[in-house]
Amino acid sequence: MRAARMFQAVDSHTEGMPTRVITGGVATIPGQTMAQRRDHFIANLDEVRQLLVNEPRGHPAMSGAILQPPCDPRADVGVLFIEVSGCLPMCGHGTIGVATVLVETGMVPVTEPVTTIRLDTPAGLVTAEVAVRDGAAESVTIRNVASYCDRLDATVDVPGFGRVVYDLSYGGNFYAITDLETLGVPFDRRAKGDVIAAGLAVMAAINETARPVHRVYDHIGGLSHVLFLAPDADERSTRHAMVIHPGWFDRSPCGTGTSARMAQLHARGLLPLNVEMVSESFIGSRFSGRLVESVDEGGFSAVIPSITGRAWITGTAQYLLDPSDPFPTGFTV
Ligand code: PYC
């Protein structure tokens, strides 16, 4: 066995969506903040992401998290989120997966019935409260970054689909929120190719004409997620299909997407603080969420979402790169 690189991982899934938690093999990434480390990683170390999430070690919907020492002195652990699409500033299902792995492998001091872990993410400090019984992480509630609605009833001309009305909201990533009916596509997993094509077309049209940029943190920008509401979605129960660039669905109900949806409902006056909303993924798995606080962020008002979900460890692994491997960064097809 020959290895030019070797990575230790604990694989998990959060309500169906994988998080490959990289616990060893990546040195401390240069940078004073996790946002700077993310920038450095994207510019200089992206082959590590590609190797770990692309085929043949990963797959088109693979997602992961690289553990790091924190930059923020308030935090216990730093996290860099990796996906087939790149490095997200924040990932809700990934945070639930990381917290579960940290507790169940004993990488953090565990207290029962609740273990609190503060995670330093490129989007800011996120707190995870893990419900623990007999050493098992039974559920994780995250206090997400400040979220806000960027636009309501915006319109965009989408080539091949016509004019689309959408809302756009931020919950750690930007999300365009609309439905499939106006695009002439059924909300049905059997039509998944059409749903993905519609999502990518909406994403491209918005990025081309009105690319979102975070109103306080200009390192966060661009749209790579479209949340299509199910016909029966309402302000207490959001069933949806989440299309993610470059062409896959979130299998989980999407923590940052659920946060964005709650910020949008709040902006519409439909979701007060401390009222539960259930979020359901395209495969039927669920998170519950609520808005727990109104805050001022850089002179703007925002809300703090809390999301609860579950994750399960699926395996432990060492991923290697043989020096003669013809695909050192993997591939996508
Ligand atoms: O759970 O926030 C999330 C997420 C983002 C992309 C995939 N999952």
TrEMBL record:
InterPro entries in alphabetical order: Pro_racemase_fam
Residue ranges crossing the lipid bilayer per the database entry: none
GO molecular function: 4-hydroxyproline epimerase activity
Domain of life from the UniProt record: Bacteria
Matches recorded under PANTHER family: BIFUNCTIONAL TRANS-3-HYDROXY-L-PROLINE DEHYDRATASE_2-EPIMERASE, TRANS-3-HYDROXY-L-PROLINE DEHYDRATASE
Family label: Belongs to the proline racemase family.
Protein name: Proline racemase
Source organism per UniProt: Stackebrandtia endophytica
